[in-house]
Structure formats: C-alpha cells, structure tokens
Specification:
With about 100 residues, the chain is mainly beta. Helices cover about 15% and strands about 55% of the residues. It has one helix at about 20-35; strands at about 5-10, 10-20, 35-40, 45-50, 55-60, 70-80, 80-90, 90-95.
Length: about 100
C-alpha cells in the first residue's frame, strides 16, 4: 500500500505525490535563475516573493538566504502543478511552482 501525503489548502485537502527530484531539478533551477524577486520585511524577517515574467506569484523564500545559494530539496506533483522545496543548506526555506 502506497502512502499518501496530504496538502492542506484553504478549500479542502488534496493528495500529493512525491516525485524524483532529478526529474525536475534542472527545470526548477532554470526557472529560479529567471524569477523576479520582490523583497519585504515581516516581523519574522525577510521574505522574497518569487514572480514569473508575467508577474504571477510562483513561490517564496523566507530568511536571509540568497537566490544563488538555494538548492532543490524535494518535489511533489499536486493538482496545481509540480511544487519543489527550496533549501538553504539543510533547511527548507521556501517553495516554487514549476511552469505547467
């Protein structure tokens, strides 16, 4: 029996399937190199809002890690597309949705 992971969103629960990071790593890193970043400060620190070339919100990074130091930690197929976690060292600091 295969274990399912559940992704909680505002309007319900959706199952997600973990996929091999190597399948999407190159695409995720290419997209990460060309995102537009909007930075803002919160009570918890710096947040980088990641936007595609059309201005669509496609991810975020929290904390002080620079874009150049981010690596791809894991990848999941969701009903909304492929979502990857962004790591800085051994810590997950954000996420990014890949273009469909």
């Amino acid at each position: 029996m295969e274990a399912k992971v559940w992704h909680f969103v505002e309007f319900g629960e959706f199952p997600v399937e973990e996929i091999d990071v190597e399948e999407v790593k190159d695409d995720a890193l290419k997209l990460l190199r060309r995102v537009r970043v909007e930075m803002y400060e919160t009570s918890r620190g710096t947040v980088m809002k990641l936007l595609d070339e059309y201005g669509n919100y496609i991810g975020k990074v929290v904390g002080g890690c620079s874009i150049e130091k981010l690596t791809i930690g894991s990848a999941y197929q969701t009903p909304f597309g492929v979502k990857v976690t962004l790591d800085c060292g051994e810590t997950i600091v954000g996420w990014l949705y890949l273009e469909g």
